[in-house]
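Structure first, sequence second, as always.
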């Protein structure tokens, strides 16, 4: 998948250094993936959650952080829409972010 807004990851791990290694690992796997449907994502990330509007929620660092991506399976694109703590995640609308 081509990941759009990778700078969001860098910005996040600058303020949360414990997230850098897990986010780099997530990025390495996701950027090599050729996900064509939610089932493909689920096969790689058992704990991924899916919402309407093609959003996927990934648990990062043992569920300490959440990453929300908007998926365009038909084009092989993933847009990072949010990365944050659970408290921050609870304040967003995943389907519209």
């Amino acid at each position: 998948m081509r990941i759009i807004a990778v700078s969001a990851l860098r910005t996040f791990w600058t303020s949360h250094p414990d997230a850098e290694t897990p986010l780099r690992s997530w990025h390495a796997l996701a950027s090599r993936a050729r996900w064509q449907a939610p089932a493909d994502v689920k096969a790689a990330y058992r704990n991924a959650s899916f919402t309407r509007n093609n959003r996927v929620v990934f648990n990062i660092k043992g569920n300490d952080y959440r990453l929300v991506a908007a998926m365009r399976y038909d084009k092989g694109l993933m847009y990072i829409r949010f990365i944050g703590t659970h408290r921050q995640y609870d304040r967003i609308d995943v389907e519209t972010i």
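Margin note: Strands lie at 2-4, 49-51, 55-60, 65-72, 77-85.
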